[in-house]
Amino acid sequence: MDFVVQEKPRANGSWSVMVTGRLNGATAPEFKKHLVSMVDEGKKKLVIDMSGVAFVDSSGLSALISGLKIAREAGGWLKLASLQEQPLSVIKLMWLDRIFEIMPTSEPDA
Amino acid sequence: MAKRYEHSKTYQLIVRIIGILTIAFGLNYIVWRYAHSLNTRALWFAIPMVIAETYGIIDMLLFVLMSWRQPERKPLPAPDKATVDIFITTYNEPEALIEKTARAALNIDWPDKEVYILDDGNRESMRKLATNLGCGYISRGREWDGKPRHAKAGNINNALLQTSGEFILILDADQIPMPSILKKTLGFFADPKLAFVQTPQYFYNLPPGDPFGNEASLFYGPIQEGKDGWNASYFCGSNAVLRREALMQLGIREYVQTMEARERDALKLLAGKAKKLVGHDPQSNAAMRQLQSGIEEAQHALDNHAPLSQVSDLVQQAVSKAELLLSKSDLADIADALKGLALQGDAEASGVYDHVVGSTDSLAQATTREDISNFSKEMLERINLARSDEAVPVQALATLSITEDMATAMRLHASGWNSVFYPEVLAYGLAPEDLGTALKQRLRWAQGTIQVFVRDNPLTKKGLTPAQRLMYFSTIYSYLSGFFNIVLLLAPIIYFFTGIAPVASWSWDFFARFIPFFVLNKFFFRIVARGIPVWRGEQYNLAMFSLDIRAVLSVLSGRKLSFIVTPKERQDSKDFRLVWPQVLIIGLTVVGAIYAVANYLLGNSAELVGLLVNLFWGAYNVVMLSVVVRALYYQLPKDWNPEPPVES
Question: Can you give the pTM of this predicted structure?
Answer without folding.
Answer: 0.77
